[in-house]
Structure formats: structure tokens, C-alpha cells
Amino acid sequence: MSDLTLYYHPLSSFCWKVLIPLYENDTPFTPHLVDLSDAEARAAFTALWPPGQFPVLADKAADRIIPESSIIIEYLDRHHAGAVRFLPADPDLARQTRLRDRFFDLHLHIHMQKVVGDRIRPADKRDPLGVSQAREKIEMALGMVEREMASKTWAMGDSFTMADCAAAPALFYCDKIIPLDGRHPSALAYLERLKARPSFTRVLTEAEPYFANFPG
Ligand SMILES: N[C@@H](CCC(=O)N[C@@H](CS)C(=O)NCC(=O)O)C(=O)O
To answer: 41 and 105 in one domain?
Structure first.
């Protein structure tokens, strides 16, 4: 059994962000699916990490609990490194990678969550203004991705990094709510490259049985 346990759900976009680097390096870990609708499972999970958000990584050998997707990726890169490195050794390039990672999480991913999350709220508790503001922010961010990716393979250029791990789930689910059609050809081509990356293909294949639960 591996020392690493990942608390996750196969449909969770932020969990995808961490599964990608785990699969990139074939890092051994035990997947622990958390069903947040199960009160007992939720209680056990919040005992581990009170915010109750996955992914959370447990490293038994180091007696550590590591929450937050970007922090998990940095932790894996430092303590369980494989052939693919997710942060450049050069400090300036590492800072740029972190900025792009933050960009995908904070300017795309969480607004996508807002739009999707609103669909599962009771009809009388919906937030149309919040959703329309989130959509505007997604449009703005997609415009930035379109300009950035016109001349690049991966978010940092030639190397696949943590920024691409952040981009993959954010762009995949954004495409479900605001299709990356002809207006965003470079962003769409980037998403297609991400989907063809074997680590992300595997994540999507494993999520497939759960896609019926995605609020379309
Ligand atoms: N900042 C966190 C965000 C994690 C997050 O939003 N996870 C979602 C699933 S994609 C979650 O656990 N949602 C359940 C909840 O908030 O109760 C990270 O990067 O790991």
C-alpha cells in the first residue's frame, strides 16, 4: 500500500488538477473517494480538513495532511518527484508558473464553479446576477487565454507544468458552459492538446461514469 492517500471525487475539477500530476509520474497513491452527500463520510473528511473541500492528500510516512490543489502539486514535486517536474527550478520561471496557476484557478475555475454550482441550487435560491457576473469574468479570462495560447504549446511554453494542470479542468468545464467555439480557436486547440495528454485522458475516462451527475 502507498504512503499517499488522495481524498477526492472523480467528478471534481480541483481533484482532476491533482490527479493529472499523479498520473503524469505514475506516482503510487491510494484513491479515497469522498461522497460529501453521505453525512458520515463528510464528518470524517471535515475532521481531516475542516473546510471540507477536496482534494486533500495524506502522506502517512511524513504524518502530513496537505490540502489545496496547488500546494499538493508543489508538495508532490518536492517530496515525491518523478520524471515530469511541475515547477521550473529557476525562481523567476517558478513565479510565472504560479501566476498562471493562480490565473486559471481564480479567474476561470472559480467562476465556472459559480455558474455550475448555481444549477444545483433550489430554484428559489438561485443567483442570476452572480451567474451573469461570473460569465462575464469567464469571457474576459478566455480572451486572455486566447491571446496567450496563440503562440504556445503549454501555458509556460514548451514544458508541461502546474499551470497546465490548473488549466485542464478549468477549460474543460468552461467549454461545457461557454463553448470554446470559433471565437477562441487557440484556447480550444490548447484544450484539445490537454485532452490528448495521456494523464488527462485517463482522468476524463475515469470521470465518465459520473458525467450523468453533471448539471447540464
Ligand atoms: N482552493 C481549493 C478549491 C477546492 C474546491 O473547490 N473543491 C470543490 C470540488 S471541485 C469542493 O470540495 N467542493 C465541495 C464544497 O465546497 O463543499 C483547491 O485548489 O483545492
So the answer is: no
**Residue 111: CATH number of its domain:** 1.20.1050.10
CA of 170 to the centre of ligand 1 (A): 13
Domain boundary (13, 46, 79) is at: 79
Report the DSSP pairing between strands 4-8 and 30-33.
parallel
- Please, which pLDDT band fits residue 1 given cuts at 50, 70 and 90? low
Nearest protein Cα to ligand 1, atom 13: 53
Q: Is the pLDDT of residue 213 over 90?
A: no
The rounded Å distance from CA 215 to ligand 1 centre is 17
Give residue-wise pLDDT tens across range 115-147: 999 999 999 999 999 999 999 999 999 999 999
* Domain of 56, in residue numbers: 4-79
- Which pLDDT band, with edges at 50, 70 and 90, does 214 fall under? confident
Tell me which residue has its CA closest to atom 1 in ligand 1.
68
Protein residues whose CB sits closer than 6 Å to any atom of ligand 1: 12-14, 36, 52-55, 68-69
Does the pTM of the predicted model rise above 0.85? yes
Ligand 1 centroid to 26 CA: how many Å? 24
